[in-house]
Structure formats: structure tokens, C-alpha cells
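FW: tagging you since you asked about this chain on Friday. Here's the raw sequence from the shared folder, copied in full. Didn't touch anything.
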Amino acid sequence: MKNTLSYRIKGAVAGEYTNTDMVAGDTVFGDHKILIAQVPELLFQTQKTLEQNTLHPVVLSVRFHCYFEYLHPFRDGNGRIGRLFANFILAKLDHPIIIIEREKKSEYLQMLKAYKKENSTVFIEEFFFNSAILRMEKEMEEKKNLTKNFLEGFVNKENKICFGRLTE
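HL: got it, structure written out here
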């Protein structure tokens, strides 16, 4: 395919399901044929839940993401695609997207493993909520700083708008 990200796995083809059982790090996934057969149902149930609005958007996003990651339908890019879909769900429902910062990647991977081990999304839901809150706090602080810096550039000591040399 033209204009796509390159895959890290030799022989992987963009947009094609895997033709082999998958392993990622120390995680072994099930029979790829059985798992791939679940993808349409995952998409159908996610769309249905979106339309019915029966789950909090972050919870729906997390549940989709976890299930998709353990279906692991592609040779490469499952994490990137799963996070993209998870953020699509959030954006579609007017919620802030989740950005997993580099220093949080290990914790994120542990939360995914906890999902598989415990068969519960509670840990990664908390991770997503905390990530969203942290991101919003950072954005609010950035907006405050930008506003302050902007105003300091145009307001003089008498608190009047001043365009510097243009009005002097």
C-alpha cells in the first residue's frame, strides 16, 4: 500500500490479517483464525454500544482497546491501531483522547497484562481516566501560560493595551 507506516515485522502487509498465531513480548495469543473471526462482532457490538450510549465513553474505549489487543488480528501495528480506535471512540463522544506518554508506556503495558490475567478492565480504566485527567490539567496550565504571555506582551503597567512601538 502506498503512503502507509512501515511495519516492524518483515512480511507484514498493511491491512491484511495475520496468517500465523501471534506472540508479542511475553504474551502469547490464541489461534489466529478464531481470534480474527471475532473482529466483526467486536466492531458491531462497539457500534451498538456507541449508539445506545450505555457505557461511559472511557470505559467503552478501554473495553474495545483491551479486547482488540488480545484479538491481535494483524502481524504488526495492533497497539497503534487499537489506540487509534480507542481514541476515535473518545473523540466521537466528545471526550479528550488518551495519549500514553513514553514514561507511562511500561505501566500501560502492565495494565493490558492485568486485563488478560484478571479478566477485568478496572486497572486500565483507571489508567485511562488518570491519563485523561493529567492531559487536561497540562492543557489548562498551558492555556493559562499562553494567555498570560500573550497579555504581558500587549498590556502595559497601567493595564492598558499597548502595541509597543506602533503606538509609542
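FW: Residues 122-154 form the longest helix (33 residues).
HL: agreed, and The mean pLDDT is 85.
FW: great, closing this out.
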